[in-house]
Structure formats: structure tokens, C-alpha cells
Amino acid sequence: MPSDNFRDRTVLLTGAAGGFGTLLAGHLADAGARLLLSDLAPQPLEALAQDLRQRGAQVVAVPADVCSEQSMAELVSAAVEAFGALDIAVNNAGMSAPMKPFIETTEADLDRNYAVNAKGVFFGMKYQIRQMLTQEGGTILNVASKAGIGGAPNLAAYCAAKHAVVGLTRTAALEYARHNIRVNAICPYFSPTPLLTTGTDEALLAQLAKRSPMKRLGEPEEMVQAMLMLIAPENSYLTGQAIAVDGGASA
Question: Which residue has the higher pLDDT, 192 or 14?
């Protein structure tokens, strides 16, 4: 992939202050993108923005809660105000969930997972698409999960919310393909980012690795390379897909 194929393209990225988001922001900055970065945690977000500015990137950092429809609308407005357009949006912000049996899953578990993992993506897409309709199109990538295209034992609430992300992705792709708006989702297997490793014991991580046909977890950099492929301008005929990056687990 050319090192500057995102040059002068405006990218809105949520969940930027950790995991996939931080890695992706770095790659996009090096490729010449203009970045509107957002995260719920303001201090690590600003630290990332400062680092990327020192590397020569054009970066605006806006703390926001993806559960707030108003905040998601304001992120799009901020990107347009700063850079004049919105070319690419990556709805990466999300939450994990403690593993528990289906019958022990509570309404609060469902509500929290839907608020962050499903409604957050919906609110983002709603205003991103509105802006892209005023332009010559655009590209949206939603971060779902392998749990969004199959079952996920002991993760019922998370699985339901990530299935919602895939459904929203495909629906929006069908509605707006004729407007040159591409919408895809990436469905990663477990990857050792802080979202997974914080509070997770080594035995469980080893068990999760064994479930993959490759007998390992997916490295964050491997996931980010797939994300870059999905949003790359040259992949202009790719839309409506939920791409599994899972070491063959979904096969």
C-alpha cells in the first residue's frame, strides 16, 4: 500500500486513545491524512495528538462519548470545520464485557453493550453519512467482532451488540452505495489490546489462543493492516462487507 495514499484526506476516528485506534492513527498520520481524533479519555487522547503533531500530522483532538448522539454530530461538524470535508470515518470505539453465562446476563449488561457498541456506531454513521451525502461520497469502517458474525459463548450481550453493528453496516451500505458511500465492518478475533488484557488472566488468554486454527491471538498490527485495506481509496468497489480477521476461526 502506498505510503501516502491517504494524503490530504480527512479521517474521523473514534476510540483513538488506545489499542487499534492509536496504531491506526499513527499509520494514517504517516500516510498524510488529516485527523479528527476522539476518545472518552481526554488526557491520553491529547497525548496522542501531540505526538502525531510532532511527526508533522494535522490533528484535531475532541473528547467525546459515543453514547451521545449530540456528541457524534458535533464530531462530524468539528472535522468539517477544521478540514473542510469528511472523507473517511472509522467507528472504532467500543467496550468489552465480562464473560458470564447467557442466563446470568442482565438487562444492564444488554443496555450498556448496546449503548456503546451499537448505538455509538449508529449515531456516528447517521451524521457521517449526512455529511458525505453533501460531498462526492465517502468511506465508513465500523469495528465489529468475530462475535458479530457468529456465536460467542458467555458473551451474549456483547455478541448481540456486535451483530447489530454488522446489520447496520450492511443496511447503510445498501442504502447509500449509489451515492458513492462505502460502508464496511471488520470482525477481529481476540487481540491483545488493553481492552482484552486488562483484568484477564493468562490462562484464559491461552485458552482463547487455542480456539484459533492458527493457535494464537491476532496481533493488533495485523488488525490495523486490514483496517487500512478496507478504507483505502483504491478499494472503491468494496462495500457492505463484514470482513473476518480471525486466523480462520470463522471458516
Answer: 14
114 is catalytic: no
Strand ordering across the sheet containing 138-143: 58-61, 34-37, 10-13, 88-91, 138-143, 181-188, 242-245
Nearest 10 degrees: Cα torsion 13, 18, 23, 28: 20
Q: What is the pTM of this model?
A: 0.93
Amino acid at 116: V
* CA 218 to the chain's CA centroid: 16
Eight-state DSSP code of residue 178: G
* Among candidate residues 145, 111, 141, 149, the one with its CA nearest the CA of residue 124: 141
Among the listed residues 158, 176, 189, 237, the single catalytic one is: 158
Is residue 96 in some structural domain? Answer: yes
Looking at the structure of the chain, the number of domains it has is 1
Task: Report the DSSP beta bridge partners of residue 181.
Answer: 138
